[in-house]
Amino acid sequence: MRIIRDLLAASLIAIAPIAPAFAESIQDASGRVVELASDPARIFAAGPPADVLLYVLKPQAMLGWVRAVPENGLQYVLPEVRDLPSLGRLTGKGDTLNLEGLLAAGPQMVLDYGNINPTYLDLAKRVEDQTGVTYVLLDGAFQKTPDTLRDLGAAIGVAARGEELAAKAEAIMAETDRLVASIPAKKRPKVYLARGPEGLESAAKGSIHSEIIERAGGINVAEGDSKGLITVSPEQLHAWAPEIIITVDRDFAANATSMPELAGIPAIDNKRVYLAPQAPFGFIDAPPSVNRLLGLRWLTAKFHPELAGEALPQAVRDFYHDFYQVDLSDEQLKALLGA
Amino acid sequence: MRERNWTLPLAGVLIVALVLGIMIGPYPLSARQILQELLGQGGGTGATVFWNIRLPRVLAAALVGAALAAAGATYQSAFRNPLVSPDILGVSAGAGLGAVLGIYLGLPVLAIQLLGFGTGLVTVALVVTLSLMIGGSVLVMVLCGIALGALAGAGISLIKLMADPDNQLPAITFWLMGSLAGVKRGDLMAAAPAILLGLLPLALLRWRIGLLSLGDDEARSLGVEVGRLRMLAVAGATLVTAAAVSMAGVIGWVGLMVPHMIRLLTGPRFDRLLPAAALAGAAFMVLVDACARTMARQEIPLGILTATLGAPVFIALLARGARQWRQ
């Protein structure tokens, strides 16, 4: 009986946006202008990138997580979102949520954020047609982050917060650009992004998983032929000879300098292998969302410690305060950035 | 010409392939540098690339190719079925399930390989036990293999569904496509004994296994203990395949295609087919792996290359075979 009641309630809420009380609108990635309910209190994030976007802007409207924040990351998010349920993802391949589950959660709108292509646009439209819930799909390109924060904030009733975060995002990008511009092309480091326990998976140049490396003034050595994830051999790594290795894998970070087949690679010999922090969200991608702003700042510090290293701890503190609304203790900061 | 012994010429082909294999790679190593390394006069990055990366990889490719081709030839003779490949009894699917589980649990690489090896063997043991309980004919065994293979496939899909899509899912996908990109000396040391141990009974019993292809009754009349011999052949071929798959991931088609091609040269006699197929499989895999690391700037999974080469050849063989089988 409870399920039926929930479903009824959900469908009533689902119909709500069709009621005449339109307040705000936003232009989504398909180019259409979507009318939204005024100050929506129940927003469903469709994928991990949307999770982060919604969390930084309006955590009180979250219905759940697509992917729950892992145990060790919970201390870095607000207490009220720590116990939200994992609802599963809605878009793309590997949907783990069905549409009835979506309606049962009773959202006033679905927020999706990430890569844009005809498949995703069509999926969004199909879900909207079938459920009657407004589906807003926003372009996840890193460059558009400030605009997205500003526009979405205004559309979902948190205009001031959107404006504040957009300004901070713009400041981080501008600071990075200024720093990168001051460095001659010859001094740009050659960087390899290592994924997987052996560090032999990577993301090629131009991939959404690695785009902030170039933005931070590094040269991604992985000249793959695809825009997604690729595998590489240790031999190829020697041929690329990266000066810096950024990794998202704890095991690889711990073992890289003692792996005999990697000896001789400049980054390994000079011990310039850096593990990107992952809590509460990844710095490099995982997911590719607003969290990458901090990754950008972190990368510039790793690429050019003499220019940007000293101010990094304060920048991390500020970012967690501004975007995640948590104040880091000294221990937490140390745990994130390493000793 | 059919009765000629092809072992020596194919050994020559393998040596050429090995030489080519150690010369080819994305890191430029000249013939002189390689010679210097072999004479112990090299050093630096060249030494790392040669001794720690390329040589283990080329040897692993040879071992895996020999293992898969020998296992395929054995299965085809023991089951008297030309369409049988080494994974017919579920060893690849079983090993895949174990390895994928290992990736999902975040185990170290060696543990992932061991788990894959173990589940591959356990799957085949289950298939054989089940088929003996049901009735023991070859057909029942193959059908049990297909069924348990499907079950393992379902398990793999389930783990994919639960895996972290950012890190684990790509790792699982890459593993299931097969690659030697990350092979280390340690991996080679771990897999080689198992592969050699499995090849040993096949080599020693190659005369008798050849008799199985005459049919059970005739083999029995020649004094062969059919049931036990077939089990021994299956055990050896399974051990070899499980070791190869746990090191290199799932690589299809080699075990099916190479024995067929070699049979065109040697004729159906298993005692000649086995060494020839093993040598040819090794040479083929060394060359395919050289393509895998040089054709594009990223690694091309071996499964893609072997299937792309294998499917057309197989269809050509089918067209040729259909004429013969009709007679």
TrEMBL record, chain A:
Q: Which InterPro entries match?
A: ABC_Transporter_SBP, ABC_transptr_periplasmic_BD
Q: What range(s) does the Fe/B12 periplasmic-binding domain occupy?
A: 42-307
Signal peptide range in chain numbering: 1-23
Which PANTHER family does the record associate with it? MOLYBDATE-BINDING PROTEIN MOLA, VITAMIN B12-BINDING PROTEIN
Coiled-coil features, chain-numbered ranges = none
Database matches in Gene3D superfamilies: 1.20.58.2180, Nitrogenase molybdenum iron protein domain
Name of the protein described by the UniProt record:
Iron complex transport system substrate-binding protein
Supply the Pfam families for this chain: Peripla_BP_2 (PF01497)
Q: Which organism is it from?
A: Paracoccus sulfuroxidans
BP terms from Gene Ontology: cellular response to iron ion
What top-level branch of life does the organism fall under?
Answer: Bacteria
For this UniProt record, the keywords arranged alphabetically read as follows:
Signal
TrEMBL record, chain B:
NADP as a keyword of this entry, yes or no, is no
Q: Molecular function (GO) terms listed?
A: transmembrane transporter activity
Pfam families, per database record:
FecCD (PF01032)
Membrane topology reported for the UniProt record: Multi-pass membrane protein
Cited CDD domains: TM_ABC_iron-siderophores_like
- Domain of life per record: Bacteria
Which chain regions cross the lipid bilayer? 6-29, 58-76, 88-107, 114-134, 140-159, 188-209, 229-258, 270-288, 300-319
Entry keywords, A to Z: Cell membrane, Membrane, Transmembrane, Transmembrane helix, Transport
Location relative to the cell: Cell membrane
> What biological processes does GO assign it?
siderophore-iron import into cell
Q: Which GO terms describe its cellular component?
A: plasma membrane
InterPro entries to which the protein is assigned, alphabetical = ABC_BtuC-like, ABC_transptr_permease_BtuC
What family is it from? Belongs to the binding-protein-dependent transport system permease family. FecCD subfamily.
- The protein's name is Iron complex transport system permease protein
| Organism (species) | Paracoccus sulfuroxidans
